[in-house]
Amino acid sequence: MNIKNLLCVVSAVALFGSVTAQAQGLTDLAKAEKKRRAQVQKTGGAAKVYTESDKSSSASSDGGVSVASAPEGAGAPGAAPGAAPATGKKEKTPEEIAAEKQKEWNDKVTAAQTQITELEGTISRNERNLASLDPELVAIGREHRELVREKVVPAHYLQQFDLWAGGLPAVPPGPAVQ
């Protein structure tokens, strides 16, 4: 039964660690987003503007949220209108980054839950094996208890040994009687 308790504690620590790590990841994500916004503002990039017409037109067309496009010439200075970004790669949005991190954590939690299930199965098998050994161990223990009582324990400690072997607390011995 101690193994189950240990397993519960280990899984609780693992889940607590993943929540802490996720909080750290979100902090890093917020810092990165802050830097990105500052960089966009420095380069003169236009911010996305949402209007009521955008809201009503997107809701009626696909039921989702759409993003208003930036005005013509709002790209990098000196770039042609509608030109691709200079890096050649599309930067991931904070939402995409957050979704990827969330998926990673969900995968880790699923793997941990699978491992917990496997370990619980192992514990059950081990408990059944132990239960099948109990009668044999009890018989061996009784035989050895009698041998120890007869061959090892001094006569003046027999009463104390019997209490202890019977599961009662042993009282400290008084003055030795010889």
What attributes characterize this protein structure?
mainly alpha, 66% helix, rod-shaped, 4 helices, 178 residues
What does this protein structure show overall?
The chain has 178 residues and is an all-alpha fold. It contains four helices and no strands. Helix 1 runs antiparallel to helix 3. It is rod-shaped, with a radius of gyration of 36 Å. About 12% of the residues have low confidence.
- End-to-end CA span: 45 Å
Helical residues, percent = 55-70%
Give me the count of strands: 0
Weakly predicted, low-confidence segments: 63-84
Radius of gyration of CA atoms, rounded to a whole number = 36 Å
Number of DSSP helical runs: 4
SSE order, one letter for each helix or strand: HHHH
Q: What percent strand?
A: under 5%
Structural class assignment: mainly alpha
Shape: rod-shaped
